[in-house]
Design a protein that fits this description.
Strand order of the largest sheet: 7-6-15-16-17-14-18
Number of helices: 16
Shape: globular
Number of strands: 19
Strand content: 15-25%
Radius of gyration: 22 Å
Length: about 500
């Protein structure tokens, strides 16, 4: 008789874990509260436009290849990738931008034009970043965070200084030009913390950026979710949507199943890919591992104010991915991490998938996604959203030298209240728990409950950390623990 597993949520980590467990002959059922699978990766379709609601960057293609390869598959069997050239553009002023192209050679030329002599420094920096990438992504992040000894290897001992220095210090030691510094500090923002609080070892994100490149799945990032869903179902996973989990059933400190839409569903194992804090709220207080004080003290990755905008005509002077660093990063970071307030001068990011993919917008029109990083837990009102939409579009018009407001057909927004309502996200955070030194590996919330046997966790608030590739890895790690525990 197969061991039954109930999985809460259907995001990247849940789908990954479900596939690995089904492969090992567990009977797996996923319960998703929303009407479609994907967790925070969903789609918005309106008036012929299609937007990815969640992640829009496809980095670290090797992690996806490794995931599908574990099942004798390749990503190309489920979705097609387009390598972006340019990868992205960074604005610093009015029609003043640096374009990051698709090869390191081209990027070096752009750096050299900006700061003579910087290309040689960049090559050295990326060589070190690649070395860190090989150590981290091919080895360390595939360890389940059970013991600090997982991090102790001859190679990591030789790099111990990089765990106690920061990305910011490492970059600024080599580069003087503030524009190049901003570009080199940008990738670690995917880890959810300030570069000044992120260990220098995480420079491997720069190799992911400049060494491996930026991709776009044809028809959008949601096709990755659809591919993972299809793989899971091929392996025998059952997926139930519109299935809100209201309680985790426990008897004598052993998980016995879940209550879904008022009905008890019994299983031998419960695995949650939902928000960690929310999942523990489904337990009696004495069965929770982490107190409210614990969560209050953690450094969370930002939330976000997002706008999904249909434009009447194609926009000019922008690329598929366009970053706007025309205001001081330090000010915005302080507003997010130190003062926890709405930013006075927000940096923002814009994505125009219709520049690459004609499925994103009707012919002759443009799909735009705008994102402002925010502190979690802020007041979120329609009036505030409207204010910031006007702020960024006014700046956008000036920076790119074009009128856009009058060409807006519609806009939809998504912010802190929606992250709470749709994903039960703690304080409406968008990216989970930041990867700071004291929130790395074994110092993150555990994959296995210490208080309830048969209860496990996966996703951005656990090991290894925030982001889509780490979520795939998290699903593999937790399934490995379950297999180990239930093969005894």
């Amino acid at each position: 008789m197969k061991t039954k597993v109930s999985i809460i949520g259907s995001g990247f980590s849940s789908l990954a874990a479900a596939s690995y467990l089904a492969q090992q002959n567990f009977e797996v059922t996923i319960f998703e509260k929303n009407s479609t699978v994907g967790g925070r990766a969903r789609q918005l379709k309106k008036d012929g436009f299609t937007f990815d609601i969640g992640p829009t960057w496809y980095w670290m293609p090797d992690v996806f290849e490794r995931f599908f390869g574990d099942f004798g598959k390749h990503p190309s069997e489920y979705y097609q990738l387009i390598k972006l050239n340019p990868a992205y553009t960074v604005y610093f002023g009015d029609l003043d931008y640096i374009t990051i192209e698709d090869t390191l050679e081209k990027i070096c030329r752009a750096f050299e034009q900006e700061e003579p002599g910087s290309s040689q420094k960049l090559r050295k920096f990326i060589d070190e970043a690649k070395n860190n990438y090989d150590i981290a992504i091919k080895d360390l992040v595939y360890r389940p965070g059970v013991s600090p000894m997982e991090l102790v290897t001859p190679v990591t001992i030789s790099k111990i200084g990089q765990f106690f220095s920061t990305i910011s210090k490492q970059v600024r030691k080599e580069f003087d030009n503030p524009r190049l510094v901003s570009i080199l500090e940008f990738p670690v923002l995917f880890l959810g913390a300030k570069p000044s609080n992120t260990p220098a070892f995480y420079s491997f994100m720069n190799y992911a950026d400049f060494g491996l490149g930026t991709f776009h799945p044809k028809d959008g990032m949601y096709t990755v979710i659809e591919g993972m869903r299809d793989l899971a179902m091929e392996l025998g996973v059952e997926i139930k949507t519109n299935s809100n989990v209201e309680e985790i059933l426990v008897e004598r400190r052993k998980a016995k199943g879940i209550r879904v839409n008022g009905t008890e569903v019994h299983s031998d194992i419960v695995l949650s890919g939902a928000d960690y804090h929310h999942t523990e709220s489904l337990l009696a207080p004495d069965l929770r591992q982490y107190s409210e004080q614990y969560w209050e003290k953690k450094v969370f990755a930002p939330s976000a104010l997002l706008f999904y905008v249909g434009f009447e005509k194609p926009l000019e002077n922008v690329e598929h991915h366009t970053l706007f660093f025309d205001v001081p990063f330090e000010e915005h970071a302080r507003d997010i991490y130190d003062e926890a307030k709405w930013p006075d001068n927000p940096l923002f990011y814009a994505s125009f998938p219709s520049k690459t993919d004609n499925s994103a917008a009707p012919e002759g029109k443009e799909a735009g996604i705008f994102l402002i990083p925010l502190a979690p837990g802020l007041d979120d009102t329609p009036e505030i959203r409207e204010k910031y939409f006007d702020i960024i579009l006014t700046r956008f018009e000036k920076l790119t030298n074009q009128e856009v407001k009058k060409y807006v057909i519609f806009k939809e927004s998504f912010c802190i209240n929606d992250f709470v309502d749709d994903y039960n996200s703690y304080k409406g955070n968008a990216y989970g728990l930041a990867n700071t030194l004291f929130q790395t590996a074994f110092l993150r919330p555990k994959l296995r409950s210490k208080k309830v046997k048969g209860l496990y966790f996966t996703g951005q608030l656990s090991v290894p950390g925030p982001g889509v590739p780490p979520s795939l890895i998290s699903g593999k790690l937790v399934s490995g623990l379950i297999q180990k525990d239930y093969s005894k």
